[in-house]
UniProtKB/TrEMBL annotation:
EC number: 4.2.1.17
GO MF term (any one): enoyl-CoA hydratase activity
InterPro entries named in the record: ClpP/crotonase-like_dom_sf, Enoyl-CoA_hyd/isom_CS, Enoyl-CoA_hydra/iso, Enoyl-CoA_hydra_C
SUPFAM superfamilies cross-referenced by the UniProt entry: ClpP/crotonase
Organism of this sequence: Ureibacillus endophyticus
Similarity comment: Belongs to the enoyl-CoA hydratase/isomerase family.
Listed PROSITE patterns: ENOYL_COA_HYDRATASE
GO BP of this protein: fatty acid beta-oxidation
Keyword Lyase annotated: yes
Keyword terms of this UniProt record: Lyase
Entry protein name: Enoyl-CoA hydratase
A Pfam family of this chain: ECH_1
The organism's place on the tree of life at top rank: Bacteria
């Protein structure tokens, strides 16, 4: 697939998506968001791909939505555009998405990062919701996802002030999984991606689904959901293989069925 604002490639069982507008710090215009979603969906359907890695070329992951594109929008135009329908499709991706971020992770860029399942950040990465300084507010899930992640108090502080949150603080609040040197950001992310891609894909898939439900469901509903997925895995070949291999004291060969 040919894209204008992103690059995609495959490395073994890992699908790579790179935001490619480095001169504008990967500011997200609407076409670019559409391209990211289409690339995610394409990797999600691709039988050879087990994990997706999302990164940004240059000195920033993304400085947010393209301000030039939306500066003169009005309410009716936004309603008719319904651009967030594209963003909603990200949460339907079944395979793990690991974000590798550096530099500015601002506004819509932060929201895109929060749509990933895991985040690895380079030293010096800064996270921010600067929308308030533009007279608006986050619109692609920022107020919801951040609050569910770090709680109301910190979410309000960060979104009200627009302050830049350093990687260390983001790690402390569970926004990111790990901080690494800039030079090894991709290498370290690929290591994690590849260790996940060696696990049985159906387990990985249903774990993502179940953990995501913990955010929206009550504990009781979430437990029922988890149980169904647990039972479901017992009809997979990989469950037979995984447990048989343990009994036979050998390494399992997972097939994703
Ligand atoms: C459009 C942007 C941009 C953005 C940077 N650029 N961020 N263009 N939209 N969000 C462009 C600049 O216009 C400039 O283009 C080039 O990238 C380099 O940026 P500079 O400002 O010259 O660089 P620097 O001085 O290093 O400052 C970097 C920065 C600053 C701190 C990241 O660019 C900045 O504050 N950007 C805006 C960040 C922001 O407010 N994001 C939230 C957007 S609202 P030229 O052509 O002049 O070289 C949002 C809402 C999401 O995300 C809603 C859901 C979709």
């Amino acid at each position: 697939m040919a894209f204008e604002f992103i690059e995609t490639s495959k490395q073994s069982t890992i699908g790579l998506i790179e935001l490619n507008r480095p001169k504008q710090y990967n500011a997200l215009n609407r076409t670019m968001v559409r391209e990211i979603v289409e690339a995610l969906e394409s990797f999600d359907r691709d039988e050879d791909i087990r994990v997706i890695v999302l990164s940004g070329r240059g000195n920033a992951f993304s400085a947010g939505a393209d301000i030039d594109e939306m500066a003169y929008d009005d309410t009716v135009k936004l309603e008719l555009l319904n651009q967030f329908a594209d963003w909603d499709r990200i949460s339907l991706i079944k395979k793990p998405i690991i974000g590798a971020v550096q530099g500015f992770v601002f506004g819509g860029g932060f929201e895109l990062a929060l749509s990933c399942d895991m985040l690895i950040a380079a030293e010096g990465t800064e996270f921010s919701f600067p929308e308030v300084t533009l007279g608006v507010m986050p619109g692609a899930g920022g107020t919801q996802r951040l609050t569910k992640l770090v709680g109301r108090t910190k979410a309000l502080e960060w979104i009200w002030t627009g302050n830049r949150i350093k990687a260390k603080e983001a790690l402390q609040y569970g926004v990111i999984n790990k901080i690494v040197q800039r030079e090894v950001l991709m290498e370290e992310t690929l290591k994690i991606a590849s260790s996940i891609s060696n696990q049985p894909p159906l387990s990985i898939r249903l774990i993502k689904e179940s953990v995501s439900k913990a955010v929206d469901y009550s504990l009781y509903e979430g437990m029922q959901y988890e149980r169904k997925n647990f039972y479901l895995l017992f009809s997979s070949e990989d469950q037979k293989e995984g447990m048989q291999a343990f009994v036979e004291k050998r390494k399992p060969q997972f097939k994703g069925r």
